[in-house]
Amino acid sequence: MNKLVLPELPYGYNALEPVISSKIMELHHDKHHLAYVNGANAAAEKLEKYRNGELEIDVKGVMRDFSFNYNGAKLHELFWQNMRPYSENNMPSSGLVEKLKMSFGSFEAFKKEFSDAAKQVEGSGWAVLWKTEEGLEVGQLEKHNLLGINGATPLLVLDVWEHAYYLDYMNDRGKYVESWWKVVNWEDVESRL
Length: 193
Ligand code: MN
What we know:
CATH class of the largest domain: Alpha Beta
Radius of gyration: 17 Å
Shape: globular
Strand order of the largest sheet: 2-1-3
Order of helices and strands: HHHHEEEHHH
Bound molecules: manganese (II) ion
């Protein structure tokens, strides 16, 4: 497969302050995201060599490694696009509110379910708003790749690995999750529907 590349952030490191500090963004994008890109490429290269008969590998281990890193790279790409600079009254369009209403009863009910999903991820993972053929669903991802929904498209993702918030919020993941709604890029979410 083609090599993954680290995409540029669609805004400056400090664009999401005061919700997410420039220090976190710099480390998160330049170090963590890059590590997933490199990890996916390294695993893909091993698989390529294995196919050519140049390398014996633990197929199960390398495929697991590829899944973890590839999904990590793609989730971060989406996460950056899902955010924009802080706005106090940050709301989706009435069209998107209607769609969320159809699946969750109300926008507030959706927000609560997504926030609860994010707060309750065990260890490292993500909250995800998925689009399925049957409607919208909220779910969790453990690490980057476990508990995914086959055939579903992620519309909105929230990284709740400790590297995403610890420098700013210490162990208060709940405060991070609640503050994060002010930087959600609803136009981007809607464009994926
Ligand atoms: Mn992350």
